[in-house]
Amino acid sequence: MAELKMLAIDLGASSGRGIVGRFDGEKLTLEENHRFSNDPVINAGGFNWDILRIYHEIKNSIRNCALSADKDIASIAIDTWGVDYGFLDKNGRLITNPRHYRDERTAGVPEQAFKTMSQNELYGITGIQTMNFNTVFQLLAEQRDNPEIFGMARDMLFVPDLLNYFLTGVKENEYTIASTGALLDARTRDWSREVISRFGLPEHIFGRIAQPGTVVGELLPSVLEEVGDIHAKVIHAASHDTASAVVAVPAKGKDFVYISSGTWSLMGTELAEPCLDGDARKYDFTNEGGAAHTIRFLKNIMGLWLEQESRRQWAREGKKYSFDELSDAAMASTPLRSIINPSDYSFNAPGDMPGRIADYCKKTGQPVPETTGEIVRCIFDSLALTYRWTVDRINAVKGTKAPFINIVGGGCKEAPLCQLTADCCGVPVYAGPTEATAIGNICVQGMALGEIADVAEARHIIRNSFDIKLYEPKTADKAAWDEAYGRYCKLVEG
Questions:
Q1: Does residue 441 form part of some domain?
Q2: Which of 61, 196, 260, 471 is the most buried (most CB within 10 A)?
Q3: Strands 15-23 and 257-261
C-alpha cells in the first residue's frame, strides 16, 4: 500500500503536540511537527483554559503539514484530557472559556448533589468514580454560580469536540470523552435523561453522541484559507486521551491490566460491559467508554503530578533538579519508610507538594520525609503500593489474575518506578510505548480509513513498531513489600 499519513493532535494538561503518523501497511512511525505549551489562565476568579490559543496552535500544526511533504495527510484527529467543556450560543459562538478541572468551584458540590441523587444511585447509572471535577458537578456549580448561562447555551461540547467544531462546524460529542463526565448511562452508552432531569439540567444542550473511528467532517473553507491546501478528513479519535492510550496497549488477549502513566495514573482493564455493583461500587472504580464499544474499567490515581509539583516547588525555592536527578536521589533513599495515599484530596491542587507530603506523614504518625530523595522515594513507593491495591481489586472483579501489567505513556521513562511496580505487584511489567496516546489516536484514524481492521490488529502493529521494555519482579524484596502493603491498606481503608 502507499504510505498513509495521519495527523494526531494530542493535547495534555500542560502542553500540546501535533504528531504525524506514517503507516506502510506493517509498521507505524511518528514524527512531531509542532509543540506548544498549554497554559491555563486565571481570570475573573476562575481557572480557565485558553481555548482559542489552543485552536490557533492546532491550525499551526495543520499548516506545518501543508508546508511540508506531509501536505497529503489523509486525516486529522484530536484527543484531550476529560470532563471539561464549553458552551455555544444560538449563533454557534463560544459563550465563555472552558473552566479547568482543577478550578476550585466544585468543592463541596458532590455532597450537595447527593442530596438530590445518592452517590450509589448516580454510580449505578453512570458507573463513574466520584471526583469533584466530574462534568456533572461542574455543571451544578455553573447552575449555582451562573444560572443565566443555561438560558444562553444551545450546545455543550467537550473540549476535543469543541475544537472539532471550530475546524468543521459540526456539533457532536464523541463517546469516550462524554463518558468521563458522569452524564452517560453506562449501559446504553447514551445521555442519561434520568441524571440530567433529576439535577435540573437543560436537556437541549446534550446533543448527538458519535463513536470513535467515525468521520466528523471536512475542514471549513475559512480554516483552509488559514492553513493551506489540505484535503484531510477530521475524524473522531477515541477523544479522551486515556481511551486513545488504551488502544495502544500492546497486549495480547483480554486479561491484561494497564497503567496509562503520566500526570495521572489511569489503571484498569477492558470489559465488554460495565461493572456497576459489588466491589466496583465499593472501591469507586470508573466505567469509561473505550474504542470498539469496550468499557475502560479503571481507577483514577494521582500519578507523577506529585513528583512534578514537588519539582516545581523546589524550583521556586531556587533548587532546580532534573527528573533523572530526582530518581537517583529517590533510589538512594531508604525504601518503604513513609507511605501516602496519592489520591488524597490534599494533593490535588498546585502548591507546596513536599510540605503537604510531610504534613500527611506527620498526621498519620509516620517518619516525616525531609530530603528531596526521601520525598520522591515516598511518592514512588506509594504509587507502587497503590498499583498493587488496584490490581488486586481488578482481579477480584474479573475473577482472574492478571499475568502482567502494561505501562504506557510518559511514565514509562521512570525506570525506577516501573521496577518498583514489578517488585511490589509481583508480576512482570511491560513498559511502552511512551507515545501511547498519539499512537492510539492514529490507529483509530487508520481504522476509520479502512486501513487497520480493528484494535487487535492495531496492537499487533504497535508490537512490531515500537520498543517495549520488560521489568521482571525481584523476589528478594517480597517480605518488605508485603509488610508495607499491610500498612498501606490500613492507611487507605481505615
A1: no
A2: 260
A3: unpaired
Does residue 243 sit within a domain? no
Q: If you average pLDDT over residues 30-50, what whole number do you get?
A: 93
Spell out the residues 6+ positions from residue 14 whose beta carbon is closer than 8 angstroms to its own.
Answer: 37, 38, 39, 263
Report the alpha-carbon distance of residue 242 to residue 436 in Å, rounded: 9
Q: Spell out the alpha helix ranges (H) of 263-402.
A: 279-282, 305-316, 323-331, 353-363, 372-398
241 catalytically annotated: yes
Residue whose C-alpha cell reads 513498531 in the numeric block = 465
Are residues 375 and 312 part of one domain? yes
Residues 355 and 253 placed together within one structural domain of the fold: yes
**Cβ-proximal residues to 450 (8 Å cutoff; 6+ apart), any chain:** none
Domain boundary residue among 235, 258, 291? 235
Residues 134 and 47 in one domain: yes
Distances (CA, A) of 135 to 35, 141, 393, 474: 28, 10, 26, 42
Distance CA 318, CA 323 (A): 16
Q: Residue 258's domain spans which residues? A: 249-432+453-494
254: CATH: 3.30.420.40
Residue type at 234 in one-letter notation: V
Asked if residue 262 lies in contact with residue 433, where contact means CB atoms within 8 angstroms, the answer is no
Band of pLDDT at residue 277, cut at 50, 70 and 90: confident
Partners of residue 38 on adjacent β-strands: none
| 290 shares a domain with 190 | no
Confidence (pLDDT) at 154: 98
pLDDT at 349: 85
Q: Are 251 and 406 in contact (CB under 8 A)?
A: yes
The span from the CA of 14 to the CA of 311, in Å, is 15
Number of Cβ within 10 Å of residue 283's Cβ equals 17
The verdict on 212 and 348 lying in the same domain is no
The reply to whether 306 and 186 lie within a common domain is no
Q: What is the CA radius of gyration of the chain?
A: 22
Phi, psi dihedral angles at 48 (to 5 degrees): -120, 155
Confidence band (pLDDT; 50, 70, 90) for 43? Answer: confident
- Quote the pLDDT of residue 44: 76
1 has pLDDT over 80: no
Instruction: At 354, list the grid cell.
Output: 513536599
Tens digit of each residue's pLDDT (9 = 90 or more) over 254-263: 889 999 999 8
**Residue 133, C-alpha cell as written in the block:** 471535577
Beta bridge mates, 431: 407, 469
Annotated active-site residue in 103, 161, 241, 381 = 241
pLDDT value of position 345: 87
Number of domains in the chain: 2
